[in-house]
Amino acid sequence: MASVLSGNRNFEGRVHPEVKANYLASPPLCVAYAIAGTVDIDLATQPLGIGSNGRPVYLRDIWPSNQEIADTIARTVGPDLFKQNYANVFAGDSAWNAVSSPDGALYQWDERSTYIKHPPYFEGMTLEPGSIADIHGARALGVFGDSITTDHISPAGDIKATSPAGAFLQGRGVTKADFNSYGARRGNDDVMVRGTFANIRIRNLMLGGEEGGNTIHQPSGDKLSIYDAAQRYKADEVPLVVLAGKEYGTGSSRDWAAKGTMLLGVKAVIAESFERIHRSNLVGMGVLPLSFMPGENAQTHGLKGDEVFTITGLRDGAAKVVEVVAKGTTGETRFQANVLLLTPKEVEYMRHGGLLQYVLRQLARPRAA
Length: 369
Description:
Blueprint: E1 2-5, E2 21-24, H1 27-36, E3 49-50, E4 56-57, H2 59-62, H3 66-76, H4 79-86, H5 94-97, E5 135-143, H6 150-153, H7 164-171, H8 189-195, E6 203-204, E7 210-211, E8 214-216, E9 223-225, H9 226-235, E10 240-244, H10 255-263, E11 266-271, H11 276-284, E12 288-292, E13 308-312, E14 321-328, E15 331-339, H12 344-352, H13 355-364
Parallel strand pairs: 1-2, 5-10, 10-11, 11-12
Antiparallel strand pairs: 3-4, 5-13, 6-7, 8-9, 12-15, 13-14, 14-15
Helix pairs in contact: 7-8, 8-10, 10-11
């Protein structure tokens, strides 16, 4: 199956979980493909369909000329249109004005809401920052290949009924018809963390490249959803790492791709290379980005995902290179990785546990007179 859309994102599974191929086109071209009912067509030589007169209709027959477009705009778009649509833009409609809102300086959280929830980022936070500590006894939550997008990491579309997020919503009395999308529920971390790495098109090499948001929990060997495995690791106080190939985090700068990674308990991502903004977002959420040395990756080091990882030599963020030790069932592998904290300010963010904690601590500190 394939789709043609006039939006700005065409990741596989973005339009619908079952649709891999998504092509970006202008709105009239989308209409043309809709009329044809297929993308397997040469629009220059093949007809879109048969007209009421029994003759074939080609794209060139219905495509508007520049003059037709200009005439339509001149006839329909003018100052009165904007005045009509925006005169009361800040007043809201009857449905908006009917929404009750509490008074007071603090937001009153509704524990029953599956859309907006008090975020957990500041739980247990102290006034003073910590340090960037070495990582011991970590397990791999996933081993991924090249070009893992932020949509793979944190999908914005459909929530499957059988997914951890779908199960959570159903447990709160939400029917499948009212699931909405991950993007619509981005204000609820309970939904979003369950959706992290839950894209049905993501391939975890720990499962031989099988699609879906599953992994192998170690050392039990149980096949679980990534969320359920992360919860089991959390209960056992086991830190997590993610291994990936080239261009990790490519695509849109989706904040939840980093937020969800952090909330799952991931302390570091080791990839061949990172998309620029996602690397920065990981730092902003207190997740350490590390890169393999040139020409190296998880496969060259024989990493399967069943190892126990130790990352040492961080020196509170001063190090440019760290040592990674991976102990597996068949032996021990040692390699170096680059520390991708690129500025002194990023080091400071990491010491605070992330950008949010850094900002809150700055606001909480008494200011000099």
